[in-house]
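Working notes for the structural subgroup meeting. M.R. asked for a predicted model of this chain before we commit to crystallization trials. I am recording the input and output together here so anyone reviewing the notebook later can reproduce the run.

Input as submitted:
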Amino acid sequence: MHRLETHVDPNSPSYKAFYAHNKGLAAELAETLRKAREDRPQRAWDRLAEQDKLPVRERLDLLLDRGAPFLELMSLAANRHYDGEAPQALLVTGIGVVSGREVMVIANDSSLKGGAWYPITTRKIVRALQIALENKLPVVHMLDSGGANLHLQDEIYAWAGKIFQQQCHLSAAGIPQLAVVFGYCTAGAAYTPTLCDQTIMVRERGAIFLAGPPLVKAATGEENTTEELGGADMHTSVSGVADYAVDSEAEALSLARDIVGVWARREKADSDRRAPEPPFHDPDQLYGIIPDDVKKQFEMREVIARVVDGSLFHEFKPRYGDTMVCGWAFIWGFKVGILGNNGVIYSEAANKATTFMQLCDRDGIPLLFLHNVTGFMVGREYERRGITKDGAKMLMTQANVTVPKLSVLCHASQGAGNYAMAGRTWDPRLVYAWPNSRSSIMGPEQAADVLTQVRVAGLRRRGEDPSPDEISTIKTEVTAYFEQTYHSYYLTSDLRDDGLIDPVDTRNTLGMSLSAVLNAPIVRTPGGVLRI
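Returned structure, recorded in token form:
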């Protein structure tokens, strides 16, 4: 491998302008994350204290190995939904280390709305369980929720069922699950702890039942206390629904660490790992490399040089299909095959990517996609040369490789280019986005032009002749809609990625991700590699 050269000039006006812009976006992201995690009315903290409950972050501190990294996922889920009343979808999810073992943690945040489930909450749980299943990660459920928000039940119901199905699949795959019950698990939510291999309950606070005392009395006339109906002592000594009863949350989490510590360990997949080293080029310079407008291009090799070990990179076909950069590198000592866009995808770029993915799939090397793409090239010349056919080859190959795929939206990620680069719907193991990134079917300007033409044509077919001002209003409305829905904060709120990340954190995020995905074995694809 050779060290990538850099052509970045930190003294240039454009670098300084880009640096200030992206540094501002990073600061905004940090503050947004802080608010989502910490901003609560004082009465919310007081209520937890009155209930003798710890905030969810303090519970995590007691569960996770001290000093070990925690890869929090979907941190801004629901932040642009429900008028902001469900920050992080009232749920913390992430990959952490417990007793030396990488696990998926799913923890209710009961500081607001009693930790009630919103539609995005259920989708977030399903996504976390999917990640655990694909990557063979044990799951620790930290349960403390008031149940479904019944005002939104029509959007919650089906996804809630998917949670329990995923738990069944995890069990069938031999992946351990542990439940720690800090609060009520009522109705359907009672199945989460009972579908786990082991369950810990906190006395006087944790409860599991299909119907609570008021509903049981209304339905049958029978009167019960919470402890009689579904408390820790009853379930650990009579029903057998739970396995351990403890007196405090601290005791519960200490016991949880002990249980995880005795689970059987999996060997990491063969990843040809070597000693990691930091990038030779300063990752802080990423702020000055990324333009302040998604319509402006940049050199993806400059990004790669600030993410990979030693800034070392072995490029594949460096003189062919130059709008697609392909090559091998190491991140945190893990070997990875990288595909990065330098703009629109032409036939040559698609064909190069296709062959490169086949090579990595044959050799069991995980793939990393770095997005900066507006789609595939269009026009008569390119259609005659078979751009659709060549794009289909890239899509077919990417969809069917068996090695883990990771994606980072670094700038634009639009149209079929997003699909070809393993966007969310193409099942990368994990996908992240930078705050400057934008993703949609097409850019707002192009969409506004197309939809304005369609609406104006419709008006004219009805005999109306819109004035220039009316046409301008239509275009402004369409542009505003697209500007909102392709924005990184809206997309991450709707779980179109697994989290917004600061560009300078990309390397560590990918390192933790590679470590996690290699808990699952890599099944190598038989067959030859086509020189396309």
